[in-house]
Amino acid sequence: MQTLVKLLYFLDIKERWQGAGLLVAMLIMAILDVVGIASVMPFLAVLSEPRLLKENQFLQIFSDYAAMIGLKSDDSIFLLLGGISILLILLSSSFRVLTFYFTNRFVEMRRHAISTRLFESYLRQPYIFFTMRNSNDLAKSLLSEVDIVVGGVIRPVLDMFVYGLVFLAVVTFLILVDPIIALSVSGVIFLLYLIIFFSLKEKISSCGNKRSESNIKRFVTTGEAFKAIKDVKLLNIENVYLSRFGPASLSFSWSQAKNQMYSNSPKFIIEGVVFSGLLVFICISIYSKGVNSDALSQLIPILALYAISAYRLQPAIQSIYKGVSSLKYGASAVEKLHTDLSKSKDVCMHRSEFSSPCLGSLDLKDVNFTYPSSDKHALKNITLSIPVGQSLGIMGQTGSGKSTLVDVILGLLTPDSGVVCLNNDPEFNSTNSGWSKMFGYVPQSISIVDDSITANIALGVDEADISVNKVALCAKMAQLDDFINELPDKYETMVGENGVRMSGGQRQRLGLARALYHDPKVLVLDEATSALDHETEEAVMNAIEKLAGKKTLIIIAHRLQTLRHCNKVVRVDDGQITFSGSYEDINLNAH
To answer: For residue 300, which phi and psi values (nearest 5 degrees)?
Structure first.
């Protein structure tokens, strides 16, 4: 029941009304199913005993109406009964097709709606969220778990409601015809399914949990292998990843196979029991009453009715059983998506509006920060002031807190205490909307999409809105234009996934051009040249140094030499500023 309630959480108000409309259509379909089944009974009764047209009160009334339209012979009335039965069955089947069309459309559109909401939920999360979650796990939830929830839970549950209504309608009709046989047949079928479900429910739940665990391992393994493909090839460790992927894939497939077996195999057992019981009932009737007895002739319409009813009831109860077992199997996937979607409600979607004043200085006052997964301060009592147009160099050992400091300045991380603001005014602080628009950011590893150079420099800008002149200007400022102009397709050259067709220095310059495209007030370089050789680093730094005075620069580096042109250099150790002064001062202090 909890899983069912959580499924409703995935639907907005409009979708819930659509679901209610589907339930109404399902109810009409169930009624038409019963009408179609009921219409067969008088046709078969007259077929076995034509005298009923004169003896049965209802058939006499029907014959009188038929006579009014010119059908007076028994044969014509019999054909009319058959025609009406055929029309009602076709009407029932046509409405069933229509209902299933709208049901399928509703289900598949939920795949789009849920995955879109989930993707938005992830993207709206603060940056700290992504430091604590594996990106492959997020991709798995978005691409795989949504499919499991939609195809493996929502669809079977809707089918459960559809056939639940059909089951109730058919059983109600059969009870009106013969309550003892109706309750016996439906009760036996329902009881058998109940026994099967309770004997398998723990195994079904266990399969669902194993599927979820092995699916995570599949995504993580493939993601890591493809991201590190160069290392995989150089180290010749393909078999390592294959040995990780194989068991996870096998476990996933076995879980799926077992679930299909647990969900579908009962119907074959029930089919055998139901139709064997029907044949046994016929044999007993023949044995006790004889083949040619009038009682047996009267029994034929009822037997035919129950054969058709069983044809409808068995798949109905099978769908109910499959829906319930799918809820057990998909409970882990539903829980996973419910947890991630509910987090979006905790995210501030609309931070206070930020109208950037004229930048005089960027200030940090007594800033402290601790990661949620750690008890140790990543930053302690950081106080800094960066005047406009000046350049600040930040140095320190790996793990000293340099990158965390930059993430706080960029507004990606919110300080536990203290404030990051403009012009020493706390009103204009890093929690305001639009804060990040002031910054251009060049990381150590540039994320490059498999698109043209133009699209990479103007990343995130619609193609129609890209300024070609601005792209060319930024490329020139980053000293990338000479390289681009030598290419056959110039700025429309495809760079390959992660820029595999570019050198390290070219990728860094592209990252610099991208950072400059939106004309930021502050340019941040987070160890942007640390992976480059000395000559390439010098070339990239020359491009950056030409921006001195035009942009406020924050440069993080391992090597002190890289910061030689900065107006001020600070050293960060263990989350604290242990030195602040000019390049010359810190250089003398280092020696």
So the answer is: -60, -50
Position 296 scores a pLDDT of 58
At residue 439, the pLDDT reads 87
Low-confidence ranges of the chain (pLDDT < 50): 348-351
Please give the full DSSP string across 71-92, using - where no structure is assigned: --SHHHHHHHHHHHHHHHHHHH
CA distances from 143 to 257, 259, 333, 357 (A): 20, 20, 12, 42
**Which is nearest to 391 in space by CA: 415, 434, 362?**
362
CA 264 to centroid of chain Cα atoms: 26
Q: How far apart are CA 552 and CA 60, in angstroms?
A: 98
User: What span, in angstroms and rounded, lies between the C-alpha atoms of 167 and 165?
Assistant: 5
Q: How many residues does the chain have?
A: 591
CA 338 to chain centre: 11
| DSSP-derived secondary structure letter, 494 | B
558-577 exposure pattern, b = at least 16 Cβ within 10 A, e = fewer: eeeebbeebbbbbbbeebeb
Using CA atoms, how far apart are residues 121 and 347, in angstroms rounded to an integer?
9
Q: What is the pTM of this model?
A: 0.71
pLDDT of residue 487: 85
* Domains of the chain (ranges, CATH numbers): 2-344 (1.20.1560.10), 361-590 (3.40.50.300)
Residue 301 carries which side chain, given as an amino acid letter?
P
**How distant, in Å, are the alpha carbons of 95, 435, 522 from that of 352?**
52, 10, 21
- In angstroms, the CA 214 to CA 206 distance is 12
SS (H, E, C) 169-223: HHHHHHHHHCHHHHHHHHHHHHHHHHHHHHHHHHHHHHHHHHHHHHHHHHHHHHH
Cβ–Cβ under 8 Å, residues 413 and 127 = yes
Residue 401 to residue 395: CA distance in whole angstroms? 10
C-alpha–C-alpha distance, residues 275 and 306, integer Å: 10
Q: Which of 546, 545, 542, 566 is nearest to 556 (CA)?
A: 566
In whole angstroms, give the CA distance from residue 87 to residue 455.
61
The pairing of beta strand 576-581 with beta strand 568-573: antiparallel
User: Which string of DSSP letters, residue by residue, matches 430-486?
Assistant: TTSTTGGGGEEEE-SS----SSBHHHHHTTTS-GGG--HHHHHHHHHHTT-HHHHHT
Note whether 387 and 554 are within 8 A (CB). Answer: no
pLDDT the model gives residue 348? 45
Distances (CA, A) of 170 to 31, 114, 308, 316: 8, 35, 10, 10
| Angle at which helices 294-329 and 179-227 cross, to 10° | 30
Helical spans, DSSP H, in 228-330: 229-235, 238-289, 294-329
Read off φ and ψ for residue 84, nearest 5 degrees. -65, -40
580: which strand partners? 570
